[in-house]
Amino acid sequence: MVGLGNPGPKYERTRHNIGFEAAQELVERHFGRFSAHKRTNAEVAALNIGGRRVIVAKPRTFMNVSGGAVKALANYFKISPANIVVIHDELDMDFGEVRMRLGGGDHGHNGLRDTTKALGTKDYHRLSCGIGRPPGRMAPAAYVLKPFARKELDELPIICADAADLIEQI
Fold it and tell me: Is the overall model pTM greater than 0.85, yes or no?
């Protein structure tokens, strides 16, 4: 499981980091802890979920170039793309909606595009967390880097719990 986001305090609680938030929820739910994994340039936690060893990671690279870290994780832990779940923000879904799918397009998401390029396949799972479209004529790139509104922050734990529930089901 790889939660996508941007590293550093500047990007905490922004829409683009909902993948990090969902990964954090899963790790905390199973009493795990992230630690630096230098060979993969990611924060990694090893969990036991339903009797299976699950690696949860947050790349320490920026969202748009996270594919290298995903590929390094897959290689290091010997995980095939079909067993990878990438958790990401999705503009084309209503805020709060969570959906899992295997393969498909990147819908203009640069983190997914880079991951697909690095893995050499589209055949990995995507857990999409809806953040909704930007208001008015705001550019999508600016919208995803804005912090959640106060009302959205109240709902964020529920969305992350829904994402963690989906992961536990698979």
Answer: yes
The reply to whether 110 sits in an annotated binding site is: yes
Q: Which long-range contacts (CB under 8 A, 24 or more apart) does 28-33 make?
A: 29/164, 32/56
Ligand-binding site membership of 41 (annotated): no
Bridge partner list, 2 = 57, 86
Which residue in 16, 37, 88, 109 is the catalytic one?
16
The alpha carbon of 4 is separated from its chain's Cα centroid by a whole number of angstroms, namely 4
Classify domain 2-169 at the CATH superfamily level: Peptidyl-tRNA hydrolase (3.40.50.1470)
Our answer to whether residue 16 is catalytic in this structure is yes
pLDDT (tens digit per residue) in 101-150: 999 888 889 999 999 999 999 999 999 999 999 999 999 999 999 999 99
62 is in an annotated binding site: yes
